Amino acid sequence: MLSLASTYPYCKSWCGAAVHWLFHTSNFPTTLPCFSKFHRPFRGLSAEHFCELQKPNMTENGLGHRERVLNVDTMNPNVKRIEYAVRGPVVQRAVQIEKELKEGVKKSFTEVIKANIGDAHAMGQKPITFFRQVIALCVYPDLLEDKFPEDAKNRARRILQACGGGSLGAYSASSGIEVIRQDVAKYIEKRDSGIPSNPDDIYLSTGASDAIVTMLKLLTAGEGKTRTGVMIPIPQYPLYSAALAELAAVQISYYLDEDKCWSLDVGELRRAVKAAREHCNPRALCIINPGNPTGQVQNRQCIEDVIRFAAEEHLFLMADEVYQDNVYMEGCQFHSFKKVLFEMGPEYSSMVTDCTTWCGFRGGYMEVINMDPEVKLHLTKLVSVRLCPSIPGQALLDLVVNPPQPDEPSYATFIKERTANLHILSEKAKMTEQVLNTVPGIHCNPVQGAMYTFPRLTLPEKAINAAKEQEQAPDMFYCMKLLEEMGICLVPGSGFGQRDGTYHFRMTILPATEKLKIVLEKIREFHKRFTEEFS
């Protein structure tokens, strides 16, 4: 039995929920209440006691032994195939080491520096003042009587007026709050030099991941050779491979060209789709631009070539443009797929179906273009199952796409903070590339955009063999030793996909400048020692 408990009706305004997994059998203790409907969580029940209560959750097998109703043999096999390296074994071990340090265990370092995930605020990046002011006012409207900038107050009032009951605690329409979808559409129109954007084509989401998984659900169909195949870049953000595994869809890998700064070659797309048609039905092409984990920014010619390829092969085009504002390298420019699509003329703009995603603060949006109206009804139905995206996330998204304007009191501070953050990231991108390329055995491409780098490692054969003996990928072996010896947490490249015989790691450039210098120096020191040990 599955029993769900929420804070309702005690604190419904935040819709917090806990889930208790209780599988009743005939010999379940009779002292337990019947959990047949929503109820409040157990009070005063220790984890040990709860686990004891679960022991009767077994059934008799033919040999008279008890087996759990849900075990690794009976669980959903698709879930077992999911891997998510960003929070995989290295990160889990990092959490254990942090606990050990707190307990007084002596190590050669005093802290674990996590450079594994793009968690800007956790890394010390200063939040934008205007954003926090408006969110604070929305969460606690009594502050509207205090000394906050008038534009922050006006923005908060506008958002609250669009919420049910004037509260962030209310549900919204499943596709998102209407005025925020209107603001997103205006933002897209301005970004794309006036190309129209319809608010009815905008779906707000709880981060871009939510939107991506929703679209993949909509696309997945068929069995055997008719099963949906989805083309994803290698290296890729592991959300894609994880979602495809969960949906039992087919991953079609196409490789980015590392020797050309992780560029995308249409010839490689053709190779991949031709091979895939032997065993599945390719239906979608995913592009991540700027790249995660590779940090490249695709040029306009590349984007045009991709659009032509998608039209020729009759593929649904998914443009993951989460890091569109994070472009650092001189000469690089972000081009939205939608803008290029429409500038290529009706031959393509009326033919290619496109979905663009963007995220932040666990808020995000997707814009669907040229979607069949009947399919769009099913998309709306699909998103309605989750009720609605996070309301605070929607509110923050509104501020991102509709920031302070030049005639408003918060504008100067906003521009100063935003410019400073992007400048610091640009400097750290350059520093990361420069320092890593001074280390023999490490090659780092320029970080053109996003907030990650994906350096290639040259590893001794002895180290590769040692990894195999431990049944680990060589770069997993490398990253785990780096963590244990230096306290630096990175993600092995094998978790993102890479060409056979190559090894990488992904790291974020987000740590504060002085801490990033420590990370880079420790990587330099460790790599030298590692290479000597296994030579």
Question: What does this entry look like structurally?
Answer:
By secondary structure, the protein is of the alpha/beta class. The chain has helices at residues 47-54, 77-80, 89-102, 129-139, 150-161, 178-191, 207-219, 239-247, 266-276, 300-313, 337-343, 346-349, 373-384, 391-401, 411-436, 461-469, 474-486, 513-533, and strands spanning 2-6, 17-21, 58-60, 66-68, 113-114, 202-205, 228-234, 250-255, 281-288, 316-320, 354-360, 363-369, 442-443, 452-453, 456-457, 488-489, 491-492, 503-508. The longest helix is centred in the last third of the chain and has 26 residues, at 411-436. It is globular and about 65 Å long. The model is unreliable at 1-45 (pLDDT under 50).
SSE arrangement:
Layout: E1 2-6, E2 17-21, H1 47-54, E3 58-60, E4 66-68, H2 77-80, H3 89-102, E5 113-114, H4 129-139, H5 150-161, H6 178-191, E6 202-205, H7 207-219, E7 228-234, H8 239-247, E8 250-255, H9 266-276, E9 281-288, H10 300-313, E10 316-320, H11 337-343, H12 346-349, E11 354-360, E12 363-369, H13 373-384, H14 391-401, H15 411-436, E13 442-443, E14 452-453, E15 456-457, H16 461-469, H17 474-486, E16 488-489, E17 491-492, E18 503-508, H18 513-533
Parallel strand pairs: 5-16, 7-8, 7-9, 9-10, 10-11
Antiparallel strand pairs: 1-2, 3-4, 6-12, 11-12, 13-15, 14-18, 15-18, 17-18
Helix pairs in contact: 3-17, 4-5, 4-14, 6-14, 7-8, 15-18, 16-17, 17-18
